[in-house]
């Protein structure tokens, strides 16, 4: 199994790159915790860190001591910014030297050990893609609206996945300008945690080629294309893990406090490796 980490984003709402921002007691980045949990579940594994040229030096510094083989790949930035997560996925797949599936995640989210254990349940039978969603009420920020891909699931298989912006809690209910009425708190949403089989690369190459360089193309859009046009059966396993992530600068204080608690109670070791 390979772990691919999306670390090329601009972090516009954060005010700059957040992929390598130190939040742990030993200045760990959030994705260091994902690496720690991933290796517990998939010990014989490797890492692909996807970033952009301007962040290459920080990327190298961040992974020089990780407990797995790794490579850093650079996503192209036409018009000064990356084209989106689907293009990043294609960049990673092009560097793969085996037919092992990969798990792809964001660099700026804490996914928890249970998420990778959930991925293990669908890894062996994977033929195209699988999704590990969370309940939307576990993925909100108190500091503003967030973007999540809302999942419609039937009998544990993904039927649709729709990128939805501006999701936030108002008076104990969850709303988005794109959704009529309140959103059920248990609605599954994607946090960009997917299993991807390398055999999907021809479909992904065609999907990316159909969009101009100024269009942001996402993994949820690609997976929806696979469902609609290729009749993909995309299994899902909803994660029960605690999630938190960096969207706004105000999130930092809470993240540091939550990580400190996880270290102090022994859920996380004092040293990740």
Blueprint of the fold:
Layout: E1 2-6, H1 30-41, E2 46-51, H2 56-63, E3 69-74, H3 85-93, E4 102-106, E5 109-110, H4 113-123, E6 129-131, E7 134-135, E8 146-154, E9 157-170, E10 173-175, E11 188-190, E12 194-196, H5 201-209, H6 219-230, E13 244-245, H7 251-264
Parallel strand pairs: 1-2, 1-4, 2-3
Antiparallel strand pairs: 4-12, 5-13, 6-12, 7-11, 8-9, 8-11, 9-10
Largest beta-sheet characterization: 6 strands, mixed
Domain count: the total is 1
What is the name of the CATH architecture? Alpha-Beta Complex
CATH topology: Spore Coat Polysaccharide Biosynthesis Protein SpsA, Chain A
Q: What distance separates the N and C termini?
A: 20 Å
Helix content: 25-40%
Spatial strand arrangement across the major sheet: 3-2-1-4-12-6
Q: How many helical elements?
A: 7
Question: How confident overall, as mean pLDDT?
Answer: 94
CATH superfamily: Spore Coat Polysaccharide Biosynthesis Protein SpsA, Chain A
Strand content: 15-25%
C-alpha geometry: globular
Order of helices and strands: EHEHEHEEHEEEEEEEHHEH
Number of strands: 13
Task: State the CATH class.
Answer: Alpha Beta
- The Rg value, from CA coordinates, equals 18 Å
Provide the structure class: alpha+beta
Oligomer, anyone? Answer: single chain
Which regions are unreliable across 5 or more consecutive residues at pLDDT < 50? Answer: none
How would you describe this structure to a colleague?
With 273 residues, this protein is α+β, with helices and mostly antiparallel strands. The chain has a single domain (2-264), classed as Alpha-Beta Complex (Spore Coat Polysaccharide Biosynthesis Protein SpsA, Chain A), CATH 3.90.550. It has seven helices and 13 strands. It has helices at 30-41, 56-63, 85-93, 113-123, 201-209, 219-230, 251-264; strands spanning 2-6, 46-51, 69-74, 102-106, 109-110, 129-131, 134-135, 146-154, 157-170, 173-175, 188-190, 194-196, 244-245. The strands form three sheets. The chain has a six-stranded mixed beta sheet with strand order 3-2-1-4-12-6, sandwiched between helices. α1 crosses α4 (113-123) and α3 (85-93) packs across α5 (201-209). The longest helix has 14 residues, at 251-264. The relative contact order is 0.19. The model has no long low-confidence stretch (mean pLDDT 94).
């Amino acid at each position: 199994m390979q772990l691919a980490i999306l670390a090329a984003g601009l972090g516009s709402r954060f005010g700059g790159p957040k992929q390598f921002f130190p939040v742990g007691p030993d200045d760990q980045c959030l994705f260091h915790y994902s690496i720690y949990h991933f290796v517990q579940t998939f010990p014989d594994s490797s890492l692909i860190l996807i970033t952009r040229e301007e962040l290459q030096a920080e990327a190298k510094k961040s992974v020089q001591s990780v407990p797995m083989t790794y490579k850093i790949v650079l996503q192209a930035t036409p018009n000064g910014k990356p084209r989106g997560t689907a293009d990043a996925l294609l960049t990673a797949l092009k560097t793969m030297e085996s037919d092992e599936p990969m798990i792809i995640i964001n660099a700026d989210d804490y996914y928890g050990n249970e998420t990778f254990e959930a991925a293990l349940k669908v890894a062996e039978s994977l033929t195209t893609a699988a999704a590990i969603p969370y309940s939307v009420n576990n993925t909100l920020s108190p500091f503003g609206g967030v973007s999540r891909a809302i999942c419609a699931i039937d009998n544990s298989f993904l039927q649709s996945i729709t990128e939805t912006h501006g999701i936030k809690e108002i008076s104990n209910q969850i709303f988005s300008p794109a959704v009529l009425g309140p959103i059920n708190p248990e609605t599954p949403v994607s946090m960009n945690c997917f299993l991807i089989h390398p055999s999907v690369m021809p479909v992904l190459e065609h999907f990316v080629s159909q969009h101009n360089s100024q269009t942001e193309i996402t993994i949820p859009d690609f997976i929806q294309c696979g469902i609609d046009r290729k009749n993909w059966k995309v299994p899902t396993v909803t994660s029960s893990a605690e999630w938190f992530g960096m969207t706004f600068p105000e999130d930092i204080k809470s993240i540091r406090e939550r990580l400190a608690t996880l270290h102090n109670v022994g859920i996380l070791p004092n040293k990740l490796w």
